[in-house]
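User: I'm putting together a small comparison set for a docking exercise, and I want a reference complex before I start. The sequence is below, and the ligand is NAI. Could you produce the 3D structure with the ligand included, as structure tokens?
Assistant: Of course. I'll restate your input first, then give the structure tokens for the complex.
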Amino acid sequence: MSTVTLIPGDGIGPEVSAATRRVVDALETDITWDVHDAGVIAIETHGTPLPPHVLDSIKANKVAIKGPVTTPVGTGFRSINVALRQDLDLFASVRPCKLYEGVPSRYDEVDIIVVRENTEDLYEGIEFEMGSAEIERLRGYLKYMHNFPIRKDAGVSVKPISVTATRDIVTFAFELATKHGRDKLTLGHKANIMKFSDGVWLETGQKTSTDYPDVEFDEMQVDEMAMYLAWIPRDLDIVVLPNLYGDIISDLCAGLVGGLGVAPGMNLGKEHAVFEPTHGSAPDIAGLGIANPIAMMLSATLMLRHLGLDEEAGRLEEAIAHVLKERKVVPADLHPDGEPATTEAITNAVIDAFNADS
Ligand code: NAI
């Protein structure tokens, strides 16, 4: 029996989480749910967006599925997504971007997995505020040691990229490619410009690739990668990127396959895994009953596979694909001009589809 921590989230989170729980329960797996609030709801009840018992639950269960949570602005609370990533050492973010038939897109075929390093790079938070005493010391040091001038009216963010973190994420990406029978891994970088950060990334990636002779390895400058993704996305298979480029390219890829409402995701560490849709809490449609639950349901298919429940994951994915292809119930975000199907109608259609298959 598997126990999974379920964090419904806020905004549309509780709606898409309830829908996802219904479809997983209808598969009659032996999963039990350990449900906990986090985010704005938990600030009201526990005074913090991420109460310690939520982390304890994920640490004990190893696997969590999470609805979106609103990041409170100006409250001084750390984003719970960042907190989960740091506290559980979730170093890999994975976004499968697959185009399902029936979903409006400019392309015929897209099936790309974006693997993003989650801990380093410009997102590590090493920042120097314009005009601060720290930046003055930094300016003085850089001028004296290296004759690098920094303008007085500049702010500075530092970009660390280590061999250790690069080796971990590239190894992870190759293992994923091997597990899923993928042929090619493309590493994105800008090592021609940032020789000492992206240079480490590229060199470590190339060295790591020699351990995986069965997967074709390719490297590409990230701007060129963006051009290929917009032009002939079927040429790319698995892509691995440092944090910042990975953030941008994964949203670009979500746009190739129909947008946020159908884009699942997962954050993985060596011990823990947190599955979640890519979209946010969508306050503009929260409570209206029209949120698209597909991204969270697809995240559940990733979770089921992670738990070794491949057959159930396959049934759920096929049922979702059937509903998308049939277009009898179409979520709001997939035809903005038509009558939006309710979250409940979409959920019922998915359950009907896999019951019909069984
Ligand atoms: P958002 O993804 O919540 O919404 C962007 C647009 O997409 C909105 O028009 C929304 O109605 C629509 N949309 C999103 N998901 C949808 C769905 N499942 N069905 C139908 N329409 C959907 O992004 P936004 O507005 O930038 O962020 C809102 C809040 O969510 C912020 O506080 C942000 O920090 C948070 N957020 C949380 C994330 C997480 O918990 N993983 C991820 C991204 C944002």
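Residues 12, 16, 68-71, 81, 260-261, 276, 279-285, 291-292, 295, 332-333 surround NAI (CB under 6 Å). The chain has a mean pLDDT of 93.
User: Thanks, that's exactly what I needed.
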